[in-house]
UniProtKB/TrEMBL annotation:
The keyword Hydrolase does not apply. This is Segregation and condensation protein B. It comes from the Bacteria. SUPFAM superfamilies: Winged helix' DNA-binding domain. InterPro entries: ScpB_csome_segregation, WH-like_DNA-bd_sf, WH_DNA-bd_sf. GO terms for biological process: cell division; chromosome separation. The keyword Cell division applies. The lineage of its organism: Bacteria, Pseudomonadati, Pseudomonadota, Alphaproteobacteria, Sphingomonadales. Keywords: Cell cycle, Cell division, Chromosome partition, Cytoplasm.
Amino acid sequence: MTPPDDRVRAIEAVLFAATEPLTLDTIRAHVAGTPNEVRECLDRLAADYAGRGINLVRRGDRWLFQTAADLAHLLRRQREEPRRLSRAGIETLAIIAYHEPVTRAEIEAIRGVVISKGTIDVLMEAGWVRPAGRREAPGRPLTYATTPGFLAHFGLESRRDLPGIDDLRATGLLDPVDLAIEALEVEKTGEGD
């Protein structure tokens, strides 16, 4: 078996990383080549994967890797529906990420509202937040911090890679209300000078 050329390898990588079946035109958008050249590469890949645990197959006008039909019985389908975080969950996660280790009372003070009982539980179930010990304060409140799973999920090497205020402003992720409050604070500090 001769090693695949660069175009075949590139097409294999594109298909492997795809989250859904790809059309010939979509594949060509990633890899240079005429439709016939790309089709030849797809045929070569399909032949290379024939008889293996996964196969390259064509479904309609789309290509994808799938488990070999004769091995499908070995796999149990456990499909987890992605859990969408509520706005409170997103805000709580952001506060923990930027202020860790942080207590529930500190999160509530920053958000300005009480956290519902399950918000931190949802973040812990997702593997993004963990208990981080107890604060040396009256009542010894539990603190929370992010996990390596949080960093991996959001593609961060460390917390230092979290976006700063200027990055958030540039992407338009700050609410207009946040920007207005920030402008008022700047005005107030400027008046006292």
